[in-house]
Amino acid sequence: MKVIGAGLGRTGTSSLRAALELLLGQPCYHMTEAIEHPEHLEFWRAAARSERVDWAGFFAGYGATVDWPGAAFWSELAQLYPDALILLSTRESPEAWWTSADATIFAGLRQPADRPQGPGVAWRHMWDDLARHRFPVDTTDADAARRRLGPALPCPRRRRPRGRVSPQELDDRVQHGPIAEPSRSATTSFINVRHHG
Length: 197
What we know:
The chain has helices at residues 13-24, 31-36, 41-48, 55-58, 74-80, 94-103, 105-109, 121-134, 142-152, 155-159, 182-185, and strands at residues 3-5, 28-29, 64-65, 85-91, 165-170. The protein is of the alpha/beta class. A five-stranded parallel beta sheet has the order 2-3-1-4-5.
């Protein structure tokens, strides 16, 4: 594991995933992996409940992780992979993050868990466990969520191991940080994917 994403969904994580896979030449774990691999869901539910899980075995073959569910465990992963860079992706403000998340992630959560185009009931159970134990924010109350997330979005900066956190701010374009070599990063464009993260 070379890069551990600590940012919430809707902070450019789909673009980060694509960029990291290109730069590292290895898969990057993202929430879409959990949706596409329902056999992963019990692992994340156990992790959310603070049960003992085999992080190294689960992430075998992955060069990075961004977005939830992995970002909810950035601190544990940072200890397991002491040489990995911690990548904190953010929006320009809690308000901008809320607007994006409420129109996508939270809008989906307001729909029935068993709807035909949804990720499924088992995924919703995983989300509920993660939200209960790792994301204590009322997603139905915008003002309360923004107040809570204001100081929370940059939380890894306060607990970071020295020199390991690379902040990346999203303002509808990918800004290149210390992971990319300039000659490689300049040749590929990444778009804002509204329906993912």
